[in-house]
Amino acid sequence: MLHKTRGIALHSIKYAESSLIVKAYTETFGLQSYILKGIRSQKSKIKPSLFQPLTLLDLVVYYKEKSSIHPVKEVSLAVPTHSTTTDIRKSSIALFLAELIYRTIREEEANASLFDFLWNSIILLDTTDEQVATFHLLFSVKLCRFLGFQPQGNRSDERRFFHLQEGSFYPLYSSPDQCLDEDQSRWFSQLIQTEMNQVALLSFPSKVRSDLLDKILLYYRFHLSGFNRIRSREVLHTVLS
Fold first, then answer.
1. For the chain, which terminal residue's Cβ has fewer other Cβ atoms within 10 angstroms, N or C?
2. Is the four-CA dihedral 183, 188, 194, 198 of positive or negative sign?
3. Beta pairing, strands 168-170 & 30-36
4. pLDDT of residue 69
5. Helices in 51-134 by DSSP H: which ranges?
6. Which of 211, 222, 87 is nearest to 148 (CA)?
7. Residue 88 and residue 47 in contact, taking contact as beta carbons nearer than 8 Å
8. Residue 214 CB neighbour total at 10 angstroms
9. What pLDDT does residue 130 have?
10. Which of 29, 79, 71, 19 lies closest to 54 in space, CA to CA?
């Protein structure tokens, strides 16, 4: 059965001589895999570049409930993202975000609030000029709400240390594998309190950004079973440092 849906390209791999298998997060079906036969041939009207990470798409797809891979009938660019493809900082952030989404979201069903968050965040990344270097940090923290382990924003003079395993601020510091130190906790609290559309208000030193990202990924490992190393983290560190 044919369906129209918006979708976000996350990951693609070559298949056979001229095809692609694409992982996309869709508005109608959640996370899905699609096969595009012959897309890498010279005769194909659909260009593989449409499936670069975080490309926003309009799709016409076949869907069968018990199938793990679905054919695509039509695909077009829904919203052009200009600076994300030309600005190396933004393209590196997009690569990181796409990998983070790909490795954390597992729902094969519609989730309107999650889809809107992802879609609007991608557009925001493309249009944001100030403090783009903190965008991935804020996004990573806000994504936690949809994954079921939103950090508590209960920092106070008595609770100065964010405990990674507990997901909240604690009075005592235990170890770097369990807690953020006092400065890191203060920066992290800013991320919790800031909305995505306020990212321009954040200004973190390079070392703080790098250390916080490592802590955030550790937080994911504590709370998400099977969460593996994000390979694009090293690229992001090189570009943004």
1. N
2. positive
3. unpaired
4. 94
5. 82-86, 88-104, 112-127
6. 222
7. no
8. 13
9. 82
10. 79
All domains in the chain, ordered by first residue: 2-79 (2.40.50.140), 82-240 (1.20.1440.120)
The 3-state DSSP class for residue 149 equals: coil
Spatial contact of 70 and 31, defined as CB atoms under 8 Å apart: no
Beta strand extents in the chain (DSSP E only): 2-15, 19-26, 30-36, 56-62, 69-79, 161-163, 168-170
Distance, CA of 63 to CA of 29 (rounded, Å):
9
Q: 84 burial class (0-12, 13-18, 19+ CB within 10 angstroms)?
A: buried
For 108, how many CA atoms within 13 A lie in the half-sphere containing its CB? 12
Residues across the chain:
241
d(CA 117, CA 160): 29
Give the residues across from 70 on adjacent strands: 34
- Record the pTM: 0.95
Closest CA to 102 of 39, 23, 42: 23
- What residues form DSSP beta bridges with 6? 58
On whether the CB atoms of residues 210 and 79 are closer than 8 A, the answer is: no
The Cβ of residue 59 has, within 10 Å, a number of other Cβ atoms equal to 25
